Amino acid sequence: MRPYFDTCAPRPSHAFARAEVAAKPLADVPARRGSVDAVLATRHAGTQRLRLHYELTGPEGAPLAVIAGGISAHRHLLANAVDPAPGWSQALLTQGRALDPRRWRLLAFDYIGADGALDAPIDTADQADALALLLDALAIERLDVMVGYSYGALVGLQLAVRHPQRLRRLLAVSGAHRPHPYAAAWRALQRKVVALGQLQCAEDIGLSLARQLAMLSYRTPEEFAQRFDAPPRLVNGRVQVAAEEYLDTVGVRFLSRMSVTAWWRLSESIDLHSVDPTQIRLPVSVIAVEGDRLVPLADAVALQEGLGCHGRLRVLRSEYGHDAFLKDVVRMDALLASELAAPLPGVR
Amino acid sequence: MRPYFDTCAPRPSHAFARAEVAAKPLADVPARRGSVDAVLATRHAGTQRLRLHYELTGPEGAPLAVIAGGISAHRHLLANAVDPAPGWSQALLTQGRALDPRRWRLLAFDYIGADGALDAPIDTADQADALALLLDALAIERLDVMVGYSYGALVGLQLAVRHPQRLRRLLAVSGAHRPHPYAAAWRALQRKVVALGQLQCAEDIGLSLARQLAMLSYRTPEEFAQRFDAPPRLVNGRVQVAAEEYLDTVGVRFLSRMSVTAWWRLSESIDLHSVDPTQIRLPVSVIAVEGDRLVPLADAVALQEGLGCHGRLRVLRSEYGHDAFLKDVVRMDALLASELAAPLPGVR
């Protein structure tokens, strides 16, 4: 056969991709962006000098929430006074949502390792410690809530174990106390695909393919069956199935968002994640999605069981699986709103 | 980071791998092996001159069954008088099983494309046509049963549509009338991983990784949770999860079984597969496994619905998912036995 990939295309810039259409910035709401230097004793990589990057949006005096997303999320949550570009959680944080940016102060940060400068094993515990250092620097004693989605939920659970005094309550969405062994194997193979690409100039193709493989774990067969129920085509004597063009686009788009080193170390850090939920003594809402192929419902149930009276489990049914928090925004928001309004689990 | 793969290891021979420990050959049961030349009008690749390879085991006069397995299966089903090496379906065909080789004549064949010589799109319809030509050459008018597992089920369904007079009944195990769009996407990404490997001398690494990715679709999270529930290790500054060693072994072992071209074209042929079950007028037992991630139960149900009175659905629960026919042999055999003993669906 002829080679499938003819060339190594030049890679897009590593700068965070920005949507072309600007969202409506909250010009009347205070916002600031900054960085603080910190020295972090990491779990597997010794002591590291790191620069922690954050953004804080919302009126003074409002309750304070930390919002943390997936491994490719970052400090820019939404269009605001310091940056009019849409943020990664733009749709989750519009007016009227459970986390309305006019009623909450919203703090977000870049994950350590996300800049690609730290090429060593990173742990979710390190992320939580870094967050605690950031809170020190910002003189924030205690968060009213942390809402962690996916990787952010893992970091939130670590914060709850390691720095419980910094956190009033946690909403852990689509994340559990451990990586599921099957999901860990899936990620390990993604890393090997990237390593295969690194054998020569095809690092970008490897990372793009890894992202495409990850997408299969973020979504569900039900969604694919609806979107891609078309016969395959023959292109240059090869079979191309209906989902391939979409997956290609997803893969290439990812290249502008993250370097290989950042992705590798953050991917690993999910597999290093481990929390004993029985050590957590603050209220945790475990929000799971039925059909999540990355974090099976059974692991969310086990997490809630470990939390005992400190935990409450809410389950969303969504054909989007793990990505429901990004794709099923309205229904997820209704669930968050009802959870934030309900009495805290474990508190009388 | 240092390169993960340090070198391109020399690849094992393409000859079919043989287990070292010989099974007990059926010395007293007739067996023969042969090849016939055929001219096949293929669906996507014009007219092809092909050599069809078969093996026939079992007593003269016994009922005749064709056994067809996954894409890496072949004509050697079991240790017999012409070849004492264990076959791919050795465990399914021992004495006392539903398809006891002393009570059945068992015919098996190499899939077209399996020798890697045909580098063009292959269709499951072509496989069925090739089988019909083989039956012509062997002067076999009609099979008493075809038992198709996985890919073999797709070929069996095509035979039922295209050559119904050659087949009395079909047992279609873990295969449906169409590839599921999510499974098709999974296979397409495997092919891209192989293509990435082909960019340099790493074709074997690519094929090994593709096989490892495929394994995730052949098995289930439940099995992985039981087998690989161990913390990750740090090896050379990188994270290695519990399933990685096993998957590596699986991938490397595959290299001795199939060439890249054969694997690519057979993988594609699953995605080209399409059968209208309402055209089938002979008895079909659809045997599905709950939890099969490659052929979801919903597709087996749809197949049975399309077959109407000609189809009957049996469901096995197995933590092995798609690979239940290879791994949950005793329970699968009990199901086959009861199905073979039951009155034919659609026949009064």
Element layout with pairings:
The structure is a homodimer of 348-residue chains.
Chain A lengths: L30 E11 L5 E11 L6 E5 L36 E5 L14 H14 L7 E5 L1 H12 L7 E4 L7 H17 L5 H16 L2 H7 L5 E3 L2 E3 L3 H12 L4 H13 L11 E7 L6 H11 L3 E7 L6 H4 L1 H13 L7
Parallel strand pairs in A: 3-4, 3-5, 5-6, 6-9, 9-10
Antiparallel strand pairs in A: 1-2, 2-4, 7-8
Helix pairs in contact in A: 1-2, 3-4, 3-7, 4-6
Which labels suit this protein?
18% strand, globular, 348 residues, Rna Polymerase Sigma Factor, Chain: A, two-stranded antiparallel sheet, 10 strands, alpha/beta, homodimer, Rossmann fold
Task: Give an overview in words.
- Two copies of one chain form a homodimer.
- Chain A is an alpha/beta fold and 348 residues long.
- Chain A folds into two domains: 218 residues, Alpha/Beta hydrolase fold, catalytic domain (Rossmann fold); 90 residues, Rna Polymerase Sigma Factor, Chain: A, CATH 1.10.1740.110.
- Chain A has ten helices and ten strands.
- In chain A, the strands form two sheets. In chain A, strands 1-2-4-3-5-6-9-10 form an eight-stranded mixed beta sheet, sandwiched between helices.
- The longest helix of chain A has 17 residues.
- About 3% of the residues of chain A have low confidence.
In short:
The first copy, chain A, is built from ten helices and ten strands. Chain A has 348 residues and is an alpha/beta fold.
Q: What's the β-strand tally of chain A?
A: 10
Work out the oligomeric state of the chains in this entry. Answer: homodimer
Shape of chain A: globular
Rg of chain A (C-alpha, Å): 20 Å
Structural class of chain A: alpha/beta
Largest sheet of chain A: 8 strands, mixed
Q: Per DSSP, what share of the residues of chain A sits in E-state strands of 2 or more residues? A: 15-25%
pLDDT < 50 stretches of chain A: 12-21
CATH level-3 fold name of the largest domain in chain A:
Rossmann fold
User: What is the typical, i.e. mean, pLDDT of chain A?
Assistant: 93
**CATH architecture classification of the largest domain in chain A:** 3-Layer(aba) Sandwich
The separation of the N and C termini of chain A measures 69 Å
What's the helix count of chain A? 10
Q: Give, in order, the helices and strands of chain A.
A: EEEEHEHEHHHEEHHEHEHH
**What is the CATH level 1 assignment of the largest domain in chain A?**
Alpha Beta
Q: Identify the strand order in the major beta sheet of chain A.
A: 1-2-4-3-5-6-9-10
CATH superfamily of the largest domain in chain A: Alpha/Beta hydrolase fold, catalytic domain
Q: Show the largest interface.
A: A-B, 62 and 63 residues
